[in-house]
Design brief:
This protein is α+β, with helices and mostly antiparallel strands. It is 44% helix and 22% strand. It has eleven helices and 13 strands. The strands form three sheets. The protein has a six-stranded mixed β-sheet, with helices on both faces. Strands 10-11-9-12 form a four-stranded antiparallel β-sheet. The chain has a three-stranded antiparallel β-sheet with strand order 2-7-8, with helices on both faces. A hairpin with a 5-residue loop joins strand 10 and strand 11. Bound molecules: alpha-D-galactopyranose. The site of alpha-D-galactopyranose (GLA) has 11 residues, from helix 6. Alpha-D-galactopyranose (GLA) binds next to helix 6.
Length: 400
């Protein structure tokens, strides 16, 4: 290794040691518990395109990011689990046999433990401190980061031997069971399979993936957090899922298909419009269009054609806003602002919707100007200070 590379490696190692959140998690653990913990990092995710189609047999293009959750965790030789959430400044001590549904953050961690118990596995007591730098309700999947980090550490601590894919599926079931959000597999999969500087092209039907290098050249990915999270988010999420199931049943009978993926063209849905509720028709139309967009987007990404990818992102937002109806005035406002800047080549709401972030692809030298303008006008309009994040694409959950 050249001396320069050696020095850089040393510098990165030093910087990683200085990671303030990891350090805080370790320090709080040391204050509260006596044993030496293992430390894990569990990332949130972005998604370039393919929204609300993971539970509709579509393709999605997520990446794990450097915003996520750190876990410090150690076995404690008792039958009790002790959690400390730094972000919620709250604790929970519970006997393993008493694990049950609870409110708020507790539901996410207990649901993961519950999934191991359902499998008949022997989980013993442990002490656990966790905290991160990922905003809740921002559409970056803080919940999958919490679930994935805990599932991964339990799997290691108890030598259960589950694969990453099995852990992703376990975390998805955890989200279904206690929090009751009938989510798809995207977030938990990205959390487990993230790879530095690579996009995951995930086929949500076969649950198999490929990686593509994320080559942004003169562009940058910028997230803008509206800082709103409308209460509707989880209930409407489940409604969307039901509406799609209802529409698919009609198409199965009418078209003889088994999956939205088999519909070649959104206009092929027209003959079934009268058989469906108007909203159900719109949801199906969005799904078929978005599946096609994501397939095109994967080709554009491989050709390094970010301009065309960006156009598809704007079209996705339009569909999410008008047909799927999961946007809100704050998100629409930010996407409109992006359109006013020719340096922003693509923008859309990201994640489940009803608040959270927009994802924007912006020319590097225009990022400062665009984000300043967008945040100032958003502030004037909604009297809320939005947050801007630049994210790095990192590996999935791992020991730190
Ligand atoms: C949430 C869910 C995912 C996915 C997105 C929308 O993040 O957890 O499964 O459906 O919304 O694409």
């Amino acid at each position: 290794m050249s001396p320069l590379r050696e020095n850089l490696k040393g510098l990165f190692y030093y910087l990683s040691l200085m990671n303030p959140i990891a350090t805080k998690v370790k320090n709080v653990f040391a204050d509260e518990f006596s044993l030496t913990p293992h430390l894990y990092y569990s990332p949130g995710r972005i998604n370039l395109i393919g929204e609300h189609i993971d539970y509709n047999d579509g393709f999605v293009m997520p990446c794990a990011i450097d915003k996520g959750v750190y876990y410090a965790i150690a076995l404690n030789n008792t039958d009790e689990i002790n959690f400390h959430s730094i972000d919620f400044n709250d604790t929970l001590s519970i006997r393993i046999k008493d694990v049950k549904k609870m409110n708020g953050w507790k539901n996410y961690v207990l649901s993961v433990v519950n999934e191991f118990l359902i499998k008949g596995l022997e989980v013993k007591g442990f002490d656990c401190v966790f905290g991160g730098n990922i905003a809740n309700g921002a559409g970056m999947s803080s919940s999958a980061a919490v679930e994935g980090g805990l599932a991964f550490s339990i799997n290691q601590l108890f030598n259960f031997g589950f694969s990453r894919k099995e852990l992703a599926l376990l975390c998805q079931r955890a989200e279904h069971n206690f929090p009751g959000v009938m989510c798809g597999i995207m977030d938990q999969y990205a959390n487990m399979f993230g790879k530095k500087d690579q996009v995951i092209l995930l086929d949500c039907k076969s649950i198999e993936h490929e990686y593509f290098p994320l080559k942004l050249d003169n562009y940058e990915i910028v997230l803008i957090n509206t800082k709103v999270h409308h209460n509707l988010a989880s209930s409407e999420y489940n409604v969307r899922r039901k509406q799609c199931e209802e529409g698919l049943e009609i198409l199965k009978k009418g078209m003889g298909i088994n999956s939205f993926r088999e519909v070649k063209n959104a206009d092929d849905l027209l003959p079934y419009k009268n058989d469906m509720d108007d909203k159900v028709y719109d949801r199906c139309r969005y799904v078929v269009e978005e599946i096609a967009r994501t397939q095109q987007a994967a080709e554009f990404l491989q050709q390094n054609n970010l301009i065309e990818l960006g156009k598809l992102m704007y079209a996705t937002h339009e569909g999410l806003s008008k047909l799927y109806e999961v946007s809100c005035k704050e998100l629409d406002f930010l996407v409109e602002k992006s359109k006013e800047n020719k340096e922003v080549i693509g923008a859309r709401l990201m994640g489940g919707g009803f608040g959270g972030c927009t994802i924007n692809i912006v020319q590097k030298d225009a990022v400062e100007k665009f984000t300043t303008e967008a945040t100032e006008s958003y502030q004037r309009k909604f009297q809320i200070d939005p947050e801007v994040y630049k994210v790095a694409v990192v590996n999935g959950t791992n020991e730190h």
